[in-house]
Amino acid sequence: MVVMSEVPRIQWLRNGKEGLAAMLAAIETAQQSVALEIYILEDSEIGARFRSALEAAARRGVRVRVLVDTFGSLELRGDYLEPVNAAGGDCRWFNPSELGRFTYRDHRKLLIIDDALAFITGFNIGTAYDGDGVTTGWRDLGVVVHGGFVAPLAQAFHGMFGAASFRHGRLARFRRHLVPQRIAIDEGDLFLLSPGRGRNPARESLVADIGQARCVRLTTAYFLPPRRLRVALCQAARKGVRVQLLFPGKSDVRLAQMAARGQYGRLLRAGVEIYEYQPAVLHAKRYLLDDVVYVGSANLDLRSLNINYELLLRVVDPRLAAEGHASFEEDLGRSARIQPEEWRRRSWWDRLSERLAGFLLVQMDARFAMRQLSRLRVPKAGLRMLRRRAVRRG
């Protein structure tokens, strides 16, 4: 159980606009250190504001470190962050494409200020995320945390930042930072997801919480869950638990939306309620199970749970959960419910397209990723990678 205090240690960032503004303000007031880990950094007005804030922080003597995923920020110029480097910062690309492991992506969104304050979000730094998700921009959210979570988050950033540079003498020295982990503290659990088969603490925890919950409300941008998670949702609904799933009505990845819709039939037959958000693209990750809250960068799909590097926070907090449920209700009011009778009448072409999309994302993506992972585990290949520095793209 979370020990509650007068000042909330975890607070919601209700949308991307609010969250990005709070992150900028935190960078501008940082005194000692700034650590930013981001999947997409966009050359845009909001991106330029972050670059300027990071550069200014470095110039006033703050230790500034920035880690940007190469694949996620593929359209960003290789020299975009050079002003930050010139001011004394250290900006690196995670997983440069020439290393032959581009399928593994650092999908985490994390900002740590002075080792005292951390932002864990689902949104990136770009124009689409800088809105309220109703009248402007995409629907997204995150949290800002104080207290005990900050230290393990800082350690997690350190591991990823070191791995990006390949400056360690041996692969094993930093691989321990990059395996699936559950870090338990008094305030809750921090899940560090990473590529690979086998035990997944985040998935196991979600399945266990679903099995015990009286109310299940899950919001995710991409839904293609492992079988155990899908079965847990169906079993809960058949037991009389109210299970409500909120997905995008508008998606930035049409193939992922089609694959998710291919899962609707069996869920609806089990009694699960499915809704699609209408005003804008839904990009949020918010999982509510009674007073249990999960929030972070991980979607409920195979890529997030088995292939990407992700962050997911779990807390038992009645206040935070109540606010999350209220936010969920607001989103439901802007969503359309999928009616089982209508869903059964959709065309054969839609059904075929959904099955094909699921095949591509489950079979092709996962198998290709596992093949790359097996190659990475060959010692000689690992040593060759370590001898090569991460080269910034020009």
Outline:
With 394 residues, the chain is α/β, with parallel strands linked by helices. The chain contains 14 helices and 18 strands.
Instruction: List low-confidence stretches.
Output: 1-5, 167-177, 368-394
CATH architecture of the largest domain: 2-Layer Sandwich
- Indicate the CATH topology of the largest domain: Endonuclease, Chain A
Strand content: 15-25%
What best-fitting shape do the alpha-carbon axes yield?
globular
The CATH class name of the largest domain reads Alpha Beta
Output the structural class: alpha/beta
Question: Mind sketching the topology for me?
Answer:
Layout: E1 10-13, H1 16-29, E2 33-38, H2 45-59, E3 63-69, H3 82-86, E4 90-94, E5 110-113, E6 117-121, E7 142-146, H4 150-165, H5 171-175, E8 181-185, E9 188-193, H6 201-212, E10 215-219, E11 223-224, H7 227-238, E12 242-250, H8 254-261, H9 264-270, E13 273-281, E14 286-289, E15 292-296, E16 300-301, H10 302-307, E17 310-316, H11 318-332, E18 335-337, H12 340-344, H13 348-376, H14 379-387
Parallel strand pairs: 2-3, 3-4, 10-12, 11-16, 12-13
Antiparallel strand pairs: 1-7, 2-5, 5-6, 6-7, 8-9, 9-17, 10-14, 13-18, 14-15, 15-17
Helix pairs in contact: 1-2, 6-7, 8-13
